[in-house]
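Notes from the 1:1 (GR / supervisor)

We went over the backlog. Supervisor wanted to see one worked example end to end before approving the batch request, so GR pasted a single chain during the call. The sequence is below; no edits were made to it. Supervisor asked that the structure be written out right there so they could see what the output format looks like.
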Amino acid sequence: MKNRITDLLNIRYPIIQAGMIWCSGWKLASAVSNSGGLGLIGAGSMSPEVLRTHIQKCKAATDKPFGVNIPLLYFQTDEVIEILVSEKVPVVFTSAGNPAKYTSYLKSKGMKVVHVIANLKFALKAVEAGVDAIVAEGFEAGGHNGIEETTTMTLIPMIREKVSIPLIAAGGIASGQQMLAAFALGADGVQIGSLFASSFESSAHMAFKQAIVEAGDGSTALMLKKLVPVRLLKNPFFDQVKTAEQSGVSVEELKALLGKGRARKGMFEGDLVEGELEIGQVASTIHGIKTVQEIFNTLILDYQSAKQNQLPEINI
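Structure output shown during the call:
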C-alpha cells in the first residue's frame, strides 16, 4: 500500500490514528506505529510535561515514526511546540486553529506538518500556510467537528478537486471497505479515531470502551454548536446539554453547564452519567474491543477483499 502518504510519513500503511483526547496516549500511538500505521499522541488533554513523558515512552516503545496532535487553541501551545522540537517528534498534526503561525517553524526543524480541516475554506488556508498534507474530517467524526455538517463522502472529492497536496480522509471510517471508498473519492490516506478509541491499548476507561461497542444507530449527535461543535454519545449528560440548548440558554450558561473536566470524567474516568462522551457515528459498527494489531489485520484483509471483489457492470 505504497503511496504519497506512506512516502511522506515513512509508514507501511496509509492509516493514521486520530490524536483523541483521553484516548491517545503513548501505548496506543506506539502500538499503531508498530503495526505499520502512524500513531498520534493527543496533546489536547495533557499538560506540557505529561506530554513530554508520553513522547519519551513512545520513543522507547517503537522505532517507527509517530506524531503528536496539537489543538492550536490549547492555552500552552508555544510551550508544547518547543517540547516537540526538543524531543525531535517527526510528525505534527495541528487542529482547531490557524496553522500559519507554526507550520514554517516546525518544517524548518525537519518536521512534517499536517493540518485538520472540515471545509474547503480552511483547506485552502492550510495549503497557503505550507502544510505537507491535510486531514479532511467529515460530519460523521467524533469529538470536535465542522459546523457546516459536511459529510466525508461530500468533503473528500470537494477538497480533492481544489487541492493537490496529499489528502487524508477522516470521519466514519472503521473498516477496509470504508478505506477503499475514501481512496476512490480521492484520499491518499485515512485517519481513524473511534475504532482505535475502543482498542485495548487506548487510554480510555473500559466503561467508555464498552459504551462504544454497545452504541447503535442514532446513538450520537452533534451538539454544542454555540461553542465548538462536538459529537457526543447519548447519555444523561447529553440529555442535559440537549435540554439546555433547546431552551435557548446563552453561551455563558452552556459553559457553566460544561464546567471543567467533563470529557476527562466520561472518557478517562468512566463516568457514563455525568461525563462527556465524544465518539463518532461509526461507533454503531464497532462490536468488540480488540488489540491494535487485530484491528490492523482486519482492516487490511477487508480492504484487499473489497478491492478484489468484482463490481456490478453498468452498460452505457
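Supervisor's comment: The chain has a mean pLDDT of 95.
Batch request approved.
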